[in-house]
């Protein structure tokens, strides 16, 4: 009797009729409140139109059609939110066929399985509430909520999804040793996925380079909203991780999804497993809602990458989200996809970022099939990389700037006068203290305070020897410019890693 009273008390819901969210009554019920570790945790969700007008519900935001297909429940253990571990789909923008229409007084129900979709690994009392988007006759969108259930659940691991079981099969090698594994994929589908992954890597590379450069054109603001340094940094880090995953991780592609209203899905905890659905195969390779873009979308969902969600689908809704709620936009998977696709798409040049030479001028690298070749290092020089910049050793110099002259060992300037108390360097120039009557030995000249001798070349040092004034010859840099110790040739792009291979400077793609 006590158990019955507890459940009934949890079902109380008071309907209102002022707008869309108050036109629907949502009841969340369970046959029991205690679930041992081997028992499914299945809840019944009932939607009733308590208004006098038709009300629409977004079908995949309910469990009525095919169970839970999105993060539609608010689940917490104590005060801590419980992670959604179910499927996240890449979908088209919703159309009329995606909505369920309830006539006045009509009810529909569906089964919501917590065990399949939420992390129930810890035993305790869970609080569960349902939420969904409602659309009224007047297109008044709102989020409606159900009552709250309190459930005592014994901890358990998630059940195995048969669709996630891998098959041993051909493994195709791709960029930098990455691999693909397949389940139920034809040869043509495998080829499409290999090509799509390469384009997805290009997209991620291009996006990351844009963000590392600190660019904030309409391409960024369209999909992520007003430029804010914190949000911008978050998006940049997302694309760094997306790029690294595309380039290095082993992906498992499952070609056995049979949903006709979605491109693909992943489970955010099951890293690099991507399930492809029928609409994926008819999508273009690149461009808006493309095969390559879909891979960017799905990879962004993984918890170890960007941990994105599906807040809005389609370009129009994603652009509106960027304008109205940039904080949500940087968590939205479609926003990342459309930013990456950057329609119109142009083939990515992996060596587009230029090296900044020691003079500030750009140096363009060339693609050698694996990395970006910057330049060959002349024979006899020792190349090295420091702080992502290219250097070579400086060579001993023999060239002496006027008015000094080479004496086979150093640069001779003038006989050192006995009345001069010192020589010194100030603001990059060499001086002597003047003699009586402001006397200055040629070729120095009195400048009103001291005897100006000459500009002192960078890397050169003055010294007195056998009553003569000398400077050391400036080091010789066959390439680059002397920085006081070595010859700086240039600095690699911030998003790339400089390295040396053989006798050439490179950066990675």
Automatic annotation (TrEMBL):
> Quick one: signal sequence residues?
1-20
Q: Which InterPro entries match?
A: Fungal_M35_metalloproteases (IPR050414), Lys_MEP (IPR029463), MetalloPept_cat_dom_sf (IPR024079)
Q: Which cofactor does it need?
A: Zn(2+)
Alphabetical list of Pfam families matching this protein: Aspzincin_M35
Q: Which residues form the Lysine-specific metallo-endopeptidase domain?
A: 209-341
**Which keywords, in A-to-Z order, does the entry hold?**
Hydrolase, Metal-binding, Metalloprotease, Protease, Signal, Zinc
Q: In its keyword annotation, does this UniProt entry include NAD?
A: no
Family to which the UniProt record says this protein belongs: Belongs to the peptidase M35 family.
Q: Which PANTHER family match?
A: NEUTRAL PROTEASE 2-RELATED, PTHR37016
According to UniProt, the name of this protein is Lysine-specific metallo-endopeptidase domain-containing protein
Q: Which organism is it from?
A: Pyxidicoccus parkwayensis
